[in-house]
Amino acid sequence: MSFDRLDKLLDALDVDAEPAPRPSDDEIARARSAGPVPMPPELEHVYRRAYEVYLPQGASIFGLLDYVDVNRQQHLFERLPGVAFFGSDGSDGFFFIDVGGALGHSPGAVFWVSRGNLQPDACVPCGWHLVDFLAKVVAGEVPWDGPSLMKTSVQRMTAALDARPDGWDAMPPVAPEKIDQHAWATMTPITPVTEKLLLRGERIRFVASGVVIGGLEAITPVAGTADADGIPSAVWVGSGPDGTRYAVTAGGWRDLPRDRLIAVPPGGTAETGRVMGLFSDVVTAWVEGRTPPGGTSRG
């Protein structure tokens, strides 16, 4: 793995301006396993260059001891498993790397989150990876001063549905009270993105992929996903022309946040289905005739 671009950004941030002891190999080895996931290699490279990195706007990459301390705080990972916290905005927010891509953006993506609201969909995307994040900071941007992950994704989906009526067709929309009745009668949690689609049409077909979401009777719980209260944590929402079924998470199942889409091929199971990403991002791609994130040309 080449770190040339990362080194240039660290040079631009003048990390060598004030000489300080760099962490030893033993210190980095201990820090590497401090959290629930190993320290990402690009972050390890940063620490081999500097013990701590100061960023503009009062932000910083944690000193190595702070990295260890923060990533050992188990409560931070209850709703954000699989991430590595690596910095602070200088106020009430932390930066983290979504190592496995569980939030549906991309593996290695950088996010900001308020320490007072550690909800996945409240996280703010800051970069597709650490280099992208640092490049924005060096350019004078404040990438954490933006809309949340879910808000951005739903805005894109809404804009695509409005702009591309040729990309989808639908039956008449479902009245909100009918959605509520179905949810209660079938013990089916209706996620926010699912509801927005039902308000557009009870059954929506995406022209390029042939994928169908709905109708209402097809939106049912995925067996075996009930939580401790008996509430299903995943819901079947649609299917494709090749027999693929699509399920959406209702929160917590497979350590995934709400409104992540799972593709289950014929003969497969929801437990091993492919995570395609944010439901709204996948819908946007289908409307626009693109291959969705985590998908194939047929969905």
Walkthrough of the structure:
The chain has 299 residues and is an alpha+beta fold. It is built from 9 helices and 14 strands. Strands 7, 8, 9, 10, 11, 12, 13 and 14 form an 8-stranded antiparallel sheet that branches. Strand 3 and strand 4 form a beta hairpin. Helix 1 runs parallel beside helix 5 and helix 2 packs parallel to helix 4.
Provide the fold topology.
Blueprint: H1 4-12, H2 25-32, H3 41-49, E1 53-54, E2 60-61, H4 64-71, E3 83-88, E4 93-98, E5 109-114, E6 124-127, H5 130-138, H6 149-163, E7 168-170, H7 176-186, H8 192-198, E8 203-206, E9 212-214, E10 220-221, E11 234-239, E12 245-249, E13 260-264, E14 274-278, H9 279-288
Antiparallel strand pairs: 1-2, 2-3, 3-4, 4-5, 5-6, 7-8, 8-9, 9-11, 10-11, 11-12, 12-13, 13-14
Helix pairs in contact: 1-5, 2-4, 6-9
